[in-house]
Design brief:
- The complex is a heterodimer of chains A (about 240) and B (about 240).
- Chain A has about 240 residues and is of the alpha/beta class.
- Helix content of chain A is about 40%, strand content about 25%.
- Chain A has a six-stranded mixed β-sheet, with helices on both faces. A four-stranded antiparallel β-sheet of chain A has the order 2-1-4-5, covered by helices on one side.
- The N and C termini of chain B lie far apart (about 70 Å).
- In chain B, helix 1 crosses helix 2, helix 2 crosses helix 5 and helix 6 runs antiparallel to helix 7.
- Chain B is mostly helical and about 240 residues long.
- The chains are: A alpha/beta (about 240), B mainly alpha (about 240).
- At the A-B interface, helix 2 and helix 3 of A face helix 6, helix 7 and helix 9 of B.
Chain lengths: ~240, ~240
């Protein structure tokens, strides 16, 4: 469903992504892990072209997202790729409900009443129906991130991308967000998650990609990756994690 | 002296308030207010367009907008008033009344300044807002309309109000092209009385001060309430019965 082909990205002369070749199958949950600055977030942001690349292709459902596209075509592609940000990025001038309603209503031309009904159902699903009329500033970080997930789901995307969804949260709020993500994975959603939550990776991921210095150094099932990492950099990363 | 000032107000309040209307054009404080309200109201949409053009990646939009802003900001207002006053009739071939000249000048001048306020308001928003809107599939213009501008304009309300205060003070320059606004009315009174300039211009100053001070207070209050709302309430009272 998502395929990276020989993706290269530079910031000036700094190589942010190098020779990325990988793919995420339909229904698969891939967790991307690695040290800070390894290019995980950059990689996930190339899928909906929030980051440009210098060469290679990123295919979504067979269509190259980085081809010369008309802007309407790119917008249509983006609307099919759910994206959840580290910093939530809810629209602070809109209530939780309106955050979820806005895009189906304005982008997909769903009627406002229908968008509201679906939004309420989604807020119910993430456990926040009772806070529908609250504004983002009135919600905790965990609640905001759950609204952000509902907002992305409202476009009924066939795939969801998560860019460190729990890194900006207080520890006691991490669980509620991960539970929502677990639920999505159980329902068969195609997911690509950049996260430092190794427990989540172990339980939920079908495959783990380990990145360092802009390259994917190792891919494998969670069992293989955590139990018997091959690459020395991955071994060191995992032993550093265990040492605290 | 204060008694003199009171007498002057008692004798001339109607002139100060509405000029020679209905025997002449509407003037005085009413004209000042109409000029500044219309000026800022028309300058505002212009400033949003200019700001969007300045932020555009399209050079055909960006360059003229930037030139306009730099040009207008680099020249004294009085100079623009003279240009518009003398150039408009030449270009249009008809005589243009002073108040219309003044209004056009104000819209141009305040619009240029306000566009920088709008641009700053847009750029001050976290880039994640635009990212989130684009990631959901909104076009650039829809993201601006539904996500960026509503936030930026609310945040900018205090600055817009400050610009309105400047506009009120800038209308005094209409005096040089005989726009019958408040300063013009005060000067008429002064010319008639001859011996009481201090009292007359004290009244004028106090009127402007009362007007502008209350508006800056309003701006400060708005700024505080926006800051409070952005931080979120201390308690979380909102629960919806569904």
């Amino acid at each position: 469903m998502i395929r990276f082909q020989a993706v290269q990205k530079y910031y000036g002369s700094y190589c942010a992504l190098s020779e990325i070749n990988a793919s995420v199958a339909k229904g698969e949950v891939v967790v991307v892990c690695g040290p800070s600055g390894s290019g995980k977030s950059t990689l996930i942001r190339t899928v909906n072209r929030l980051e440009e690349i210098q060469s290679g292709e990123v295919l979504f459902n067979g269509q190259n997202v980085h081809a010369r596209l008309r802007s309407a075509e790119l917008n249509r592609l983006r609307s099919q790729i759910g994206f959840v940000f580290q910093s939530f990025n809810l629209f602070p001038h809109l209530s939780a409900l309106d955050n979820v309603v806005l895009s189906p209503w304005r982008v997909n031309a769903v009627s406002r009443a229908e968008a509201r009904d679906r939004a309420m159902a989604l807020l119910e699903r993430v456990g926040l129906a009772s806070r529908a009329l609250s504004y983002p500033a009135q919600l905790s970080g965990g609640q905001q991130q759950r609204v952000a997930i509902a907002r992305a789901l409202a476009m009924e995307p066939p795939a969801m991308l998560f860019d460190e969804p729990t890194s900006a949260l207080d520890p006691e709020m991490v669980g509620e967000v991960l539970n929502v993500m677990r639920g999505l994975a159980n329902d068969g959603m195609t997911m690509m998650c950049v996260t430092h939550e190794m427990g989540f990776a172990r339980d939920v991921a079908d495959r783990v990609w380990f990145m360092d210095a802009g390259r994917i150094l190792e891919t494998g099932t969670p069992g293989a990756f955590f139990g018997n990492p091959q690459h020395p950099r991955a071994q060191r990363f995992l032993s550093d994690l265990r040492s605290h | 002296m204060l008694a003199n000032a009171v007498t002057i107000v008692q004798d001339n309040w109607l002139l100060l308030l509405i000029g020679q209307y209905p025997n002449g054009p509407l003037g005085g404080l009413a004209a000042t207010l109409i000029l500044s309200v219309l000026g800022i109201a028309l300058a505002f949409p212009l400033s949003v367009l200019v700001a969007l053009a300045r932020l555009s990646h399209w050079r055909a939009l960006q360059l003229p907008a930037t030139a306009l802003v730099y040009g207008v900001r680099g020249v004294p207002l009085l100079m623009i008033i003279f240009w518009v006053y003398f150039m408009f009739p030449l270009l249009l071939g008809v005589s243009v009344p002073g108040s219309a000249t003044m209004l056009c000048t104000l819209v141009l001048y305040e619009g240029a300044f306000l566009s920088e306020v709008v641009r700053a308001g847009i750029q001050a928003l976290p880039p994640g807002q635009m990212d989130a809107a684009r990631a959901l599939g909104h076009s650039y213009s829809r993201a601006m309309r539904f996500v960026i501008l509503p936030q930026a304009l609310t945040n900018m309300l205090p600055s817009i109000l400050s610009q309105f205060v400047s506009t009120i003070k800038d209308t005094t320059l209409g005096y040089v092209i005989n726009v019958p606004e408040l300063t013009f009315a005060a000067n008429q009174i002064n010319n008639r009385l001859l011996t009481k300039p201090f009292e007359v211009f004290l009244i004028l100053a106090l009127t402007y001060y009362a007007l502008c001070f209350s508006l800056t207070q309003l701006a400060a209050w708005l700024e505080r309430s926006i800051a409070t709302r952005r931080a979120g309430p201390v308690t979380q009272p909102l629960v919806v019965a569904q």
